[in-house]
Write a structure and sequence with these properties.
The chain is α/β, with parallel strands linked by helices. Helices cover 39% and strands 21% of the residues. It contains 16 helices and 22 strands. The protein has helices spanning 41-60, 63-79, 81-92, 96-114, 152-165, 180-191, 205-212, 225-235, 260-272, 292-305, 324-339, 373-376, 392-401, 415-424, 459-463, 483-493; strands spanning 7-9, 12-14, 21-25, 32-37, 124-125, 131-139, 142-146, 169-174, 197-201, 218-223, 242-246, 250-254, 282-288, 343-346, 363-366, 383-389, 404-405, 407-411, 429-432, 447-448, 451-452, 465-473. The protein has a 7-stranded mixed β-sheet, with helices on both faces. Strand 12, helix 9 (260-272) and strand 13 form a beta-alpha-beta unit. The termini are far apart.
Length: 499
């Protein structure tokens, strides 16, 4: 990709209609990395027109041809793994290894859904006597993706791959803070023969333009709650269906008898990986009173040992936040939490001695009640809050009262206690004795204030297709005349009145 980076269409990079560009910063230094197209309404219209036409051609291909095209895309992504990982690391601040793992997830997702092309089935309906019905699942046409900047490759793939498997086209509005990897992914898709994929960049205003556009059949959103509500409101103009995943750290529970040797490092990794900015990061940990002091001591010691540094440095164990603004929001949230009575047990501020990037220390906080700002409005950053509990039912009720419901972790050895707690939690996904069970085969469905609509697994195919029912009347033709028509025909057959 040359500087400035244009819009990937038909295997080439096209300059924006109005010629504007946005700067993409290197998270480690704050310096400009590359410039990308600042797309406006004309560009959105042009991209959607191109993908709408390409989607029609994509649906006309045979299932084996579409499968092979998706597999070629997966090979292109895998072949550019190092380049994509470096772009992700530099523009988002994720460690090189973390970025590479996210690219691997994207490749696995594309390969998984390539295997489901042509395998989307309907149902046979025979409940009406003398009739036969069946349903088919048909594509919407174009799926519009609106994503946050973190975990950009896997988010792209988890939306685009099932959309394409269903016969849709896919257009991504790449987040302007970290658009480079998604734009390259779209270019590689087109080069692989998957022309019904595009990505463009632009300021926040193009989100609502995309959400309101009549060429968009369904919208897939991942991002902040405020942005998500704006997209939902915009989609109402054309009554477009949506899948919505709103970012919020989730709760974890460490039950009595849990293996702390496994739970402590896994929960620390869950929160401090990608500087705490992953959408699946643990934000708060409820620890049984019998293990509370040992857990806090263990996670504090680990947080203090973590080496924070540039994402491409070989010895770095945690990188920077994406921007100075993001770091300042985390610092302000910690200060507000302390002012409300919380206690910082490790970290708590910017990393001394590291200039340029938005580095913040891995931070552990105790004494934050649910009303504390750190619990009520958890920041996207490396801040883990911990509290003790005695009654699992009460802890579950407290967690449920927060209103979010995307994900939870449970750590424990007592299967009955684990299963009981899992049943009490109002969340769409529960991970048990694991912190990173992400796989394209497994659906993830946010509940309540975290959004709605499944991603991953076969459920995603249902979200990105619509049902058509076809009903046949199998009764003999002579028996089908409606009663009203029979009456009219009977009156006509009597002939005119000659009295």
């Amino acid at each position: 990709m040359s500087d400035p980076v244009g819009i990937p269409l038909s295997g080439a990079f096209v300059p924006p209609a109005e010629g504007g560009h946005l700067d993409v910063a290197d998270a480690a230094t704050g310096a400009v990395l590359l410039r990308v197209a600042d797309c406006g309404e004309k560009d959105v219209d042009a991209v959607l027109a191109a993908v709408t036409g390409a989607a029609a051609r994509w649906r006309a291909l045979t299932a084996p041809d579409r499968t092979e095209a998706l597999l070629r895309w997966a090979r292109e992504l895998d072949g550019h793994r190092d380049t994509l990982a470096e772009l992700v690391a530099r523009e988002s601040g994720a460690l090189r290894a973390e970025a590479a793992a996210d690219v691997d997830r994207a490749v696995a997702c594309v390969r998984h859904y390539a295997g489901l092309v042509g395998k989307i089935d309907g149902r046979t309906l025979s409940g009406i006597p003398g009739h036969l019905g069946h349903t088919v699942r048909e594509p919407y046409g174009v799926v519009a993706g609106l994503n946050s900047w973190n975990s950009a490759p896997s988010l792209f793939a988890w939306q685009a791959a099932p959309a394409l498997a269903c016969g849709n086209g896919y257009v991504l509005r790449a987040h302007p803070a970290a658009p480079l990897a998604p734009v390259l992914m779209a270019h590689l898709a087109q080069r692989a023969g998957v022309e019904a994929v595009a990505a463009f960049t632009g300021r926040d205003a193009v989100d609502t333009r995309l959400a309101r556009h009549p060429a968009v059949g369904v919208i897939a959103f991942t991002g902040s709650a405020d942005d998500g509500r704006e997209v939902v409101r915009a989609s109402a103009d054309q009554v477009a269906p949506l899948t919505v995943r709103l970012a919020a750290p989730h709760n974890a529970f460490v039950l009595a008898g849990a293996d702390l040797d496994a739970a402590v490092p896994c929960l620390a990794h869950s929160r401090f990986a990608c500087a705490g900015q992953n959408w699946f990061a643990a934000g708060h940990v409820y620890v049984h009173t019998s293990l509370y002091e040992a857990f806090v001591a263990g996670v504090v010691a680990l947080a203090e040992r973590l080496r924070v540094g540039p994402p491409l440095a070989a010895d770095a164990q945690m990188g920077p936040l994406i921007s100075a603004e993001a770091r300042d929001r985390v610092a302000a949230a910690v200060a507000a939490g302390v002012a409300a009575g919380a206690e910082v047990r490790a970290g708590g501020g910017p990393v001394p001695g590291l200039d340029g990037g938005a580095y913040f220390q891995p931070t552990v906080v105790t004494g934050a009640w649910p009303s504390n700002p750190l619990r009520a409005r958890p920041p996207a950053g490396p801040v883990l809050t911990v509290s003790a509990f005695g009654d699992p039912a009460a802890a579950a009720a407290e967690a449920n009262a927060a209103g979010s419901g995307a994900l939870a972790q449970i750590w424990g050895r007592d299967a009955r206690a684990v299963q009981d707690l899992a049943g009490r939690l109002q969340t769409g996904t529960v991970w048990i004795n694991t912190h990173d069970a992400l796989a394209p085969e497994i659906p993830m469905t946010p509940w309540r204030g975290s959004g709605y609509g499944a991603s991953g697994g076969p459920d995603a195919l249902d979200e990105l297709t619509r049902t058509k029912a076809v009903v046949w009347d199998l009764t003999p033709l002579a028996e089908r005349t409606p009663s009203l028509t029979k009456a009219a025909l009977g009156a006509d057959s009597e002939g005119p009145d000659h009295d």
